[in-house]
Write a structure and sequence with these properties.
The structure is a homodimer. Helix content of chain A is 37%, strand content 22%. Chain A is an alpha/beta fold. In chain A, strand 12 and strand 13 form a beta hairpin.
Chain lengths: 311, 311
Amino acid sequence: MTPADNFFVLVDWGTSSFRGWLMSPGGAVLAESRGGEGMLHCAAAGTGGTGFAAVLGDHLTRLGAAVGTPVLICGMAGARQGWVEAPYIKTPTRLDALHESAIRVDAPGDILILPGIAHAHAEAPDVMRGEETQLLGVTELGYTGLVCIPGTHSKWIRIDDGRVVAFSTYMTGELFSTIGQHSILTHALDPANPSPADGAAFREGLARALAEPTALTASLFRLRAAQLLGFEQRTDGSARLSGLLIGSELADAARQYAPLRSVRLIAAGALGRLYAAALGQHGFEVTQVDAEQASRLGLAKAAGRLWGAKA
Amino acid sequence: MTPADNFFVLVDWGTSSFRGWLMSPGGAVLAESRGGEGMLHCAAAGTGGTGFAAVLGDHLTRLGAAVGTPVLICGMAGARQGWVEAPYIKTPTRLDALHESAIRVDAPGDILILPGIAHAHAEAPDVMRGEETQLLGVTELGYTGLVCIPGTHSKWIRIDDGRVVAFSTYMTGELFSTIGQHSILTHALDPANPSPADGAAFREGLARALAEPTALTASLFRLRAAQLLGFEQRTDGSARLSGLLIGSELADAARQYAPLRSVRLIAAGALGRLYAAALGQHGFEVTQVDAEQASRLGLAKAAGRLWGAKA
């Protein structure tokens, strides 16, 4: 029996989450296991990787994977503070060669971790870990265009003929929560209405940021001033803040990656709806793919290249 | 004896500080009293203004002010959540007419609070309270030019022939502390080296922000990435962050208020040095005035117009 005939396991191991799938030799999802045992949990649970090994073992049992089933992992398990460091490969780099830089875990069985990607330029240094696998998942061989992956640290990636050539990370999601919780803008956000939705307030914030792309830190204070002076309502605060921050990201990315306007959007739920609306309004041609599906598709493609399993 | 022959008291009453001066009829400082009993302390200490009245009474005693000495106050004591609200006057407004909108406190004696200023335009709403008095202090009759008041909420004010016509507030200082304490950038700042100084790292951050004025939220993440990839040192983190944020403010203000390039800088200490360096590098002609002196000078001018005391 060759490995190509075997089942295999795919794992998306983030900072604070674990998602695993048992796959058939033909590439179908047979079982799924998920939990909150991300990198932070595992690093705290044991030294020398024992925390990671134990958590993976539990999930393999839940998945019903036979002993020795090969496992392919992406994400923070490969960070320096993770299980085994899978060093960043550097741009420009082919997505279809990601699997060649996978790192083998020194543990029983065939356990591999995919590398992250670094843009190692002093002028615009940047890193990703986990997103490279999503990129592989949502692009076909030879893809040229942009990919946008919104979130805590939103990423915009330029792909040229299947190679990652440049990318930028925007602190959009983290600024939204940090400013909303720890600045004067806590008074401008309605605790009863914390989740921004795509509506007039979001679109006005977006338009403001796009019209004055250098004015972000002034526009933030104006959220408060506008409410003090009766121009705006606190119930609209979080949608306006979201519009300003996403608009600021969009304005810079559009400038940075011009003239590209075709974008694969890797996102889900409410955030996906906000970005799809924002990108569409700003003249981007958007194809949206669910974020979790993107990770699984990318892992499956890399596993196929490693073990001959079907992508 | 007319009021003009009397001593008078000036008070700069901020959110978290109280500074009072007993002045001679001729405008000389005879005594000073300062403490941490700002608006927040006083509002919590008693209802209906009793907290404010008690704190002022204590300071008047410390200053050796005779009963009935007139008192002129600026700052947050006049906010809605302060002692008595001194409503914002609206731009455009003459600085030499500030005293005409002072609000009388319903308490024994002659106690007046100067108003704040609002830019009540839906497109660029903004408010100030306390800074208007500093503006009066540092400008001569008929002044035309810019004033920059750095801080938690940095302000840039355009003055035209002695009238405040427009201003913008940047959340520069608050973002510096919020991001530094509550985001991934805590890992990029050296706790042993928290205070930014004017050096190579500060100037590089400044130059980066000025070169890419729309890229702030990406430049913030790059602070972290540059350290992960070995391009930058954690000891330089806070200076770089400060350079990025001040540079972002400067880039927008320079655009907003072009072609004005003559600026009065109201600041003190390390922050004053950083801004003076940044403004100088960016081609501004800078005249620096100490922030506390600016408040006292402005209060004295307004008191002179109210009571005939010398400014």
